[in-house]
Amino acid sequence: MERFLVEGPARAPLTLVLAHGAGAPMDSPFMSTIAAGVAKAGFRVVRFEFPYMAARREGGKKGAPDRPAILEAAWRDAIREAAGKKGPASVAIGGKSMGGRIASMVADEAGVAGLVCFGYPFHPPGQPEKLRVAHLERLKTPTLIAQGERDQFGTRDEIARYRLSKKIRVLFLPDGDHSFKPRADSGRTESQNVGDAIAAAAAFLRSLANA
Q: Could you give the number of structural domains in the chain?
């Protein structure tokens, strides 16, 4: 498979670079749906894989994710390649779960236009005391986080207690889990929640492009 999956117009006002979560590749159904939706809204979308996930394709071994330093280095490389001569201000970065989390750790230093996270892992499931929010308190990059209300990595009630940077906006998707899927009796559908996340991401990118 190619190193990057690219969709959307080449001359889009902004490029969104996306990384996958810990367990699924860049061409998972969730990633593909998000990428296609944002691209249809008029933005260039570039997906890439971390080294451990790319290695799975070649050898079939399901190894654990790379160390944080390697994940961050992969993000810096992806930003540099996707931005090209236009520079990092021409791209926004983000991704699903771990992919978005690592993006948030390099966003400020990279100088990107914005950050979009789909299901942010604020803490490991069942371990709300192990927070991953210290850097989010001082984040300077404009950020959108689309989060299911009952996400086991950070529910709406839990997030309300966090001290997040004023640069961060959290969109809560009704009754959604970590992949935005609501319960059958909620009155919502998964496609509605995913659609709302895509629409919010497109509007956010449009605001960055017009800033």
A: 1
